[in-house]
Amino acid sequence: MRFLPRGCAVCICVTLLTFASEPGPAAVRESSPNSAAKIPLAITHVSIVNSQGPPQKDMTVVVSGGVIEWIGASADLKRPARKDEIELDTRGKFLIPGLWDMHTHVAGINADPAWSKVVLLPLLVANGITGIRDMGGDLHALQDWRGEIASGALLGPQIVTPGPMLVPEPRVGSAKSTDPSILQVGSPEEARSAVDALQKQGADFIKVIQLSREAYFAVAEESKEDGITFAGHIPSGVTASEASAAGQKSIECCQLNC
Q: How much is the CA Rg of the chain, to the nearest whole Å?
């Protein structure tokens, strides 16, 4: 029987809704994300939903130090046991891989970053979402959260993000926005500079919105030059086939110009 990888990071969600109203020992002994991750946990007699094959029934998963330490049949006497571990008997329950939300805006646009940090990030994890692809927001806030999550100081999902979205320059006579979730560009030169700046600041990719045709292709060229991918909307002056040929990795929204 093939099992899931043993050494991968914990990206799992247990459908244990019946336990929601009964705080377990972990809730009593430890409260912070960092300290809770240190308590060994044995999830026993669970059915694992395996994306590579049929469900694996009556399995045990041992989690220690925030990683999956062991996966095997519940009857297997070789499983590691620790005297301080918490054991959950999950007969009739299912264990699934962690989910990814591939289009969020948690640090700006429609969400107040201060609210997202204390409410939305933990809520995502509580609903089984262990990774998000944030498609436009305050890069500094998102990077700070990512560091806190990695250290265990903050409960939240893994985050990949482009930081601010590249949007058209303001109308003549209007001042540029100071909103950290957007970056206004007009000329091809501004588009190239924006790509360079975001790449140096640690953005994972570049997000484009409704740019001019010239600025769009400047983004595509500079992204290739800098070794960073770009994704997002397809401007009305660009066809889907042109965007694909230019290297755009995903289309979030577009007018159907083929």
A: 22
Nearest to residue 96, comparing CAs of 11, 169, 174, 159? Answer: 11
Q: Give the pTM.
A: 0.79
Alpha-carbon span 224 to 218, nearest angstrom: 10
Mean pLDDT of the chain: 86
Give the span between the Cα atoms of 233 and 181, in whole angstroms: 16
Q: Is the pLDDT of residue 32 over 90?
A: no
How far apart CA 110 and CA 205 sit, in angstroms, is 21
**Relative orientation angle of helices 188-201 and 213-226, to the nearest 10 degrees:** 30
Question: Which pLDDT tens digit goes with each residue over 102-137?
Answer: 999 999 988 999 999 999 999 999 999 999 999 999
Q: How many residues does the chain have?
A: 258
